[in-house]
Amino acid sequence: MTLLFGRRARLRWLHLIIGGALLMPYFLAAMVVVGWFHPHTELFSSFSQQLTAFACALPVAAVTALFGPARQLSVAAARALCGVPGDRPLADGPARTRQARVRTAGWYTLHLALGGVISGATLAVPPLAGTIAVLPFSRSVRESRTFGLPEAMDRPWILVLLPFVGLAILVAMAGCAALAGALLAGRAPVLLGPTPQDRLAAAERRAAELAVRNRLARELHDSVGHALSAVTLQAAAARRVLDSDPDFVREALTAIEETTRRTVGELDSVLGLLRSGEEHGATGPGLDALDGLLEHCGVPVSCAVRGETGTVPAAVSREAYRIVQEGLSNALRHGGHGVPVELRITVGAAELEITLDNPLPERAAVVRPGGGRGLRGIAERAVLLGGRTQAGPHGDGGWRLTARLPLGTRGHPRTSEQENR
């Protein structure tokens, strides 16, 4: 009995009655039109005319479902009343594609058609069943012109069965309503679920959001990670010579101050992007800010620049700055304070080339748990611009990081060659 009269069955029954109520304006308008062709017939006296009006009303309802927020309203009603399985999601938002609108029209027509039938049965069947059930107890009802029984049926054993017949009619009507509600619930994910175009649009939105998050994560990693590495090593070096070399300690504290001040500004910029949720208008230091970075990076750097860095596009310039910053951070982290780094920047006609060389320490560096993401982030920055990177041992005990970034239009990403450091 739960399947027929449980909470889910009652909600689905209510959903069908709402469909019947939505059908009424179309049905009444169709009855008026049908009545024009039968002027001498009473409007609601002919079942054939009602059936014709019902059939004419459904196409009109389907057409109206092609416009407006029909899918949003249908989805809200189906979620609240239909009991759609949770593993079969329904679509959100209005129908923007032709396929989505056609599916919505199909759902709306099915809902109104089944709702009209079940609503009509809900109005007509209970009084009929009740009358049949009371026939054995009321001779006046049995002899009435409205519901008179044939003499052949006016027998005791037949009268005894009539209450059960009335109850069976009610149960049959409840079963029909339950079947119609289950049919709607089963078709809802198909007709109101996301179309392939909806899934593609959702995937594109998720990809765009993920790209923004990855970009901001790289910004935080490169700026804050570099600053923390530089500050930590500067402080450690200053602590070791605190009593013997106060001038070096003073220089180290100045470098720490400049590094943290610059990093706080970069952190505010990244957090501003996070708060606004926008990637447009992205700002950050470029190649014109390299002097400040090299001065307080914590390692001695010899820098050679060929070409005009001012002609480099802003987006490429920002990514190049971050690549240099992360390369210096790696050199500082793995080589330690005082390890020389050679930086070469070449601005060509078609691409920008960045090369960082530094010696590897004789003693293996301590790698932080879980490994780093620096080289991976460098590769991602280059690939997004259509460039490539290469990192690994080079020459006699050295390490080389090379990045090539195109200066023209963005090309197809190429494979990045790198080794775990």
TrEMBL record:
<feature type="transmembrane region" description="Helical">
    <location>
        <begin position="50"/>
        <end position="70"/>
    </location>
</feature>
<keyword id="KW-0067">ATP-binding</keyword>
<dbReference type="Pfam" id="PF07730">
    <property type="entry name" value="HisKA_3"/>
</dbReference>
<keyword id="KW-0812">Transmembrane</keyword>
<feature type="transmembrane region" description="Helical">
    <location>
        <begin position="108"/>
        <end position="137"/>
    </location>
</feature>
<dbReference type="InterPro" id="IPR036890">
    <property type="entry name" value="HATPase_C_sf"/>
</dbReference>
<feature type="transmembrane region" description="Helical">
    <location>
        <begin position="12"/>
        <end position="38"/>
    </location>
</feature>
<dbReference type="GO" id="GO:0016301">
    <property type="term" value="F:kinase activity"/>
</dbReference>
<keyword id="KW-0547">Nucleotide-binding</keyword>
<keyword id="KW-1133">Transmembrane helix</keyword>
<dbReference type="InterPro" id="IPR050482">
    <property type="entry name" value="Sensor_HK_TwoCompSys"/>
</dbReference>
<protein>
    <recommendedName>
        <fullName>histidine kinase</fullName>
        <ecNumber>2.7.13.3</ecNumber>
    </recommendedName>
</protein>
<keyword id="KW-0902">Two-component regulatory system</keyword>
<keyword id="KW-0808">Transferase</keyword>
<dbReference type="InterPro" id="IPR011712">
    <property type="entry name" value="Sig_transdc_His_kin_sub3_dim/P"/>
</dbReference>
<feature type="region of interest" description="Disordered">
    <location>
        <begin position="388"/>
        <end position="421"/>
    </location>
</feature>
<keyword id="KW-0472">Membrane</keyword>
<feature type="domain" description="Signal transduction histidine kinase subgroup 3 dimerisation and phosphoacceptor">
    <location>
        <begin position="213"/>
        <end position="278"/>
    </location>
</feature>
<keyword id="KW-0418">Kinase</keyword>
<keyword id="KW-0597">Phosphoprotein</keyword>
<feature type="transmembrane region" description="Helical">
    <location>
        <begin position="157"/>
        <end position="185"/>
    </location>
</feature>
